[in-house]
Specification:
mainly alpha
C-alpha cells in the first residue's frame, strides 16, 4: 500500500516533536474515552448519535449555503444538502432508529478501519510497532463482524461499546506511535555522534 512510513520520510524535527506531543495527549484522551464507552455503552451510544447527527446537520446546512452562494442551479449540491439534513433530522427526532442507522454506519467504519490498519501494518515492515497496528486492525475487523451478526437489535449498547473499544485501541496505537518516534530520534542522535 504505502512504501514508506512517516518514520522514514525525513520529516523536520519541529513537526515530529509536535506529532509526538499530540499523539501522546490524544492517545491518553482516546484511552479514557474508550474506557468510559466500555463501562457505560448506552451513554456512549447516545453521545455518539448526538455528535454524528449534529455534525451531519451542520454539513448539510453548510453544503446548502455553499450551493446557494456558488451555483444555485447545481442540483447535486442541493441533493447532497437535502440528504444530509433529512438523515440528520431523522436521527435526531427518532433516536432509536437513528441508533440502528448509526450502528450500520459504524459497522462500515470498523471494516474500513480494519482495512487501513492492515495497510499500515504491512507497510511498516521491520518496525517494532507493526504488531500494534495488526492488533488494532484485527480488533476492528472482529467488531465489524460481531456487529453485523446482531444488527439492528443490539445497536443500543453495541454502538457505544464498540466505539469505546475502538477508541481504547486507537489510543494505545497513538501512544505506541509517539513512543516509536522517540526511539527513532534516539537512533538518529546516536548515528550522528
Amino acid at each position: 500500500m504505502w512504501k514508506y512510513t512517516t518514520l522514514e520520510m525525513g520529516m523536520n524535527k519541529a513537526l515530529i516533536g509536535k506529532f509526538k506531543k499530540y499523539a501522546k495527549i490524544g492517545g491518553v484522551i482516546f484511552i479514557l474515552l474508550g474506557i468510559a464507552g466500555v463501562l457505560f455503552p448506552t451513554f456512549m451510544t447516545f453521545g455518539t448519535l448526538a455528535f454524528v447527527s449534529y455534525l451531519m446537520l451542520f454539513a448539510g446546512i453548510s453544503a446548502g449555503v455553499l450551493t446557494w452562494t456558488s451555483n444555485r442551479n447545481d442540483w447535486t449540491g442541493w441533493l447532497k444538502s437535502f440528504i444530509l439534513i433529512v438523515v440528520a433530522s431523522y436521527m435526531i427526532f427518532y433516536p432509536m432508529q437513528g441508533v440502528a442507522t448509526l450502528g450500520l454506519l459504524f459497522s462500515i467504519y470498523f471494516f474500513m478501519d480494519a482495512f487501513t490498519g492492515f495497510g499500515l501494518a504491512f507497510s511498516a515492515e521491520g518496525q517494532k510497532h507493526k504488531w500494534v497496528w495488526l492488533f488494532n486492525a484485527a480488533t476492528s475487523l472482529v467488531l465489524a463482524i460481531i456487529f453485523i451478526i446482531g444488527w439492528p437489535f443490539t445497536s443500543l449498547w453495541l454502538v457505544g461499546f464498540f466505539v469505546g473499544v475502538s477508541l481504547f485501541f486507537d489510543g494505545i496505537a497513538l501512544l505506541v506511535g509517539g513512543a516509536a518516534l522517540d526511539a527513532v530520534e534516539e537512533n538518529e542522535e546516536k548515528e550522528q555522534k
